[in-house]
Structure formats: C-alpha cells, structure tokens
C-alpha cells in the first residue's frame, strides 16, 4: 500500500505539533510535506527575544536537520495559493501542485492595522513575526520613545521587554479601558495605576487619526487629545486569521475554518488547527476561535493524531490569557465577561489584588485574577482556577463560601478532587512523548 500523503500548510505551533504527533504515532510510515512561507518558529517567545533573554536560535522550533530527521519534505518560503478540495491537491504560489491524502490548514493569523494615514510608514511596526521582532529590536535604544497603539494581550506581552530595554513607553487604546478583551473595568484600572506608577504613560479612550513624520521622529495624532511624539510606533491593533487563500475551496469558514472534535472541516480529508480554526470551546460547548498558544498546541496534536489514523476527540479549548507585566500577574479564563453569570468579587484596597469568580449555577465558568507575581498565592491560584473552569466541577457545596471569600479557591480545588481528575488526563489517550524524543524508524 502506498504511504499516506499528509500535507501541512503553516509551520507555526499548530503545524509543528501536528507533524510531531503524526511522527509520534506512525514513526515515519507516511509522507509529510510542510508548505510554509516561514521556517518553523514560535511567535510566543518573541517577547523574550526582544528582551534579550533568548537569542534568535531559541525562537526556532525545527531547523533543516530536525525536519529531515523526521522525514518532513519542507517547501519553505512557499505559500499555499489555493486548495483544490475536489482534486485533493494544493496549489502553491509558484503554480506547483501538491497532491495529498489529507491536508492540514495551520496558517495562523496576521496582524491588522487600522486604515489611518501613515500606518504603513517608516518606523511603524507590527510585532507578530520574527522579522518584525528584529525590526523593533533594532530600532530601540535606551531612552527611545515608543508609542504602543493598542493595549490588548499581545501589546502586554512585550511591555516588560520594552521597559527592560530602556524604552519610554506611551500606550494608546481606543477602548475606554486597557486590556478590553481580557479583564473588566476594575482590573483594568488597577493595571493602569500599576503601569503609571512605573513610568508608563497610559491613555485609554483615544483614537489615532494619523501617524506623521517630523524631523526623523513620529507624531501620532489623536482625535481626542494632544499628539504623542515617538521614535518608534508599534501597532498591536488586532489579528485576523489567514483564510483568504481558501476562497472557493468549499471549506466552510466562519470566524475561522469550522472544525469538529477531530479537527476536521466539512471536507472530510481537510483538517484545521490553531489560530485559523474555529473549534469546540470547552466552557460554552459552542465553536470559537481561541487564538492562543495552548489551543494551537492541542489543536495541532489532535489533528495530527487523527490524520495518523487514531480516533481522538478533542474536549475543547479553554480561553485563557495570562501575562506578567512589571511583576503584576494578570490572568483571565473562560467566560470572564459573562454578563449573565453570578459574580463573586474580592477587591483589596491595600494592595493590587483583585479576583472575580463567575458562576453559572454550581459551575465556575470564568475568572479574573490579578496580583503581585511575588505573592505565591496569585501564581498558584492561576493554575487552580484554570483547573476548576476547565473541569467544570460542581462547586454547589462551595459556592456560598467562595462568594464570601473568593480567595479560598484552594480548599474547593482540593476537596472536589479536581487535581485527581486532571492528572491522569491526556490529550491523545496516553502519556505524550517529549518532542525531542520523537523519532522515525530507520
Ligand atoms: C508577540 C507574541 C506573543 C504571544 N504570546 C502569547 C502568550 O503569552 N500566550 C499565548 O497563549 N499566546 C501567545 N501568542 C499567540 C500565539 O503565538 C499564537 O496563538 C500561535 O502562534 C498560533 O499558532 P498557529 O500555528 O495557529 O499560527 P502561527 O504560529 O501564526 O503559524 C502559522 C504559519 O503559517 C504561515 N502561513 C500563513 N499563511 C500561509 C500560506 N498561505 N501558505 C503557507 N504558509 C502560510 C505563517 O506565516 C506562519 O508561519 C503570542 C503571539 C505573539 C505574536
């Protein structure tokens, strides 16, 4: 029998995890072709590269030797231009056709810039790809004035690095509060105060109208206040899944490629994973795009296992954002903004500590947590809250107590046996092999 031909489009987190899951299972029995316009690397570590905590080689997930060792035929620097679902072949940007038995769409997302004059000008950068990270890194000197447009999660992942590199930072956000898709008003206010006390200028509720040049510097014009002068502008104004190339393919697309619990699209031999996929949401049971690293890892592994012939059903991803900014830990999980949920809130006046638990009946459906990183309870509780939201444990017996004291999460976590339930759980039905130990048969 001819070896099965898997074609993976996109070599980011989802694509690479699919490849290693396939090889973990089939030990090299199939053909894998990777079509990717960039060599495999992890975007999530780019903030550490910017902060000079790691070098460029640590951003890479698989170099040419590793790809060859896993018997992956890599078509790097090439883009998928079109999927011919009826003919089971991929058409590349140079016209080459790559036939497949199954195809994985793992094309991730791209940054979006608002259509303001000057948005594409010199010294205006997105921070999404390695070349963009290089450009930002190369443009910063101690004392550089940096205007960050957008105060969402991605912007926050690079604040530490920018400050550690000596940048003088102004954060501009169109929404009335910072981190508008991650935390509520109360938490956003604490974070804003924390940043301001550490020298970061924070201006929510402002709309950028233009970015102009003035004698080598940039001037960010605002509809709602005085302009901001900067040496460098970073646009962190959202992302959009890379779906355009699927037009006319017959693959069902909503916010992302709609996939079932096996990460399969409406076309049975086409799978999708990561930022580009709209998969099961663990908390709501509906489908959602969760453009975060853990979802890309899990999607990739589940898609890869199914492509390799295992029947693996994915229990769904948990929306979570965790970021440490200048030693303040900020986290939110699941339905943290569910207006119909019952909320238990603990806001401390004496220190930056805030917690909000959201219940639907006896179930914790979402949470927000904020506290100093050095306060160990904050760090530990992040994991426990995540576990409680993920398992959907019945907390009816604990609810009154948690409503009165949302800090008491540990007792509820232990008493309900949540750790016992989580520990034996595996994504693919067995202990996973560390990536470096995945090999193929000679
Ligand atoms: C600065 C930064 C910090 C982040 N921090 C965190 C964090 O702390 N926690 C977290 O959970 N998430 C974080 N993320 C998000 C996380 O990196 C993404 O969710 C993750 O990379 C998604 O993986 P993916 O494989 O779906 O897509 P990607 O990693 O984007 O990979 C997709 C690949 O496909 C390629 N591609 C696209 N179109 C085509 C085409 N037509 N043909 C060929 N190739 C194509 C792309 O160029 C890319 O190489 C961060 C992201 C950034 C940029």
Distance between the termini: 19 Å
Number of extended strands? 26
CATH architecture of the largest domain, by name, is: 3-Layer(bba) Sandwich
Instruction: Kindly report the spatial arrangement of strands forming the biggest sheet.
Output: 3-2-1-7-19
Summed up, what is this model?
The protein is an alpha/beta fold and 442 residues long. 25% of the residues lie in helices and 29% in strands. It has twelve helices and 26 strands.
List the helices and strands and how they pair.
Elements: E1 5-9, H1 13-26, E2 31-36, H2 46-50, H3 64-69, E3 72-76, E4 80-84, E5 89-92, E6 97-99, E7 102-105, E8 109-111, E9 124-126, H4 130-138, E10 145-149, H5 153-157, H6 159-164, E11 168-173, H7 185-197, E12 201-204, E13 208-214, E14 217-222, E15 225-230, E16 232-235, E17 239-241, E18 257-258, E19 270-272, E20 277-280, E21 287-288, H8 293-307, E22 320-325, E23 328-334, E24 342-347, E25 354-360, E26 363-372, H9 376-391, H10 396-404, H11 409-415, H12 418-422
Parallel strand pairs: 1-2, 1-7, 2-3, 7-19, 9-16, 10-11, 10-16, 11-12, 18-20
Antiparallel strand pairs: 4-5, 5-6, 8-17, 13-14, 14-15, 20-21, 22-23, 23-26, 24-25, 25-26
Helix pairs in contact: 1-8
Bound molecules: flavin-adenine dinucleotide.
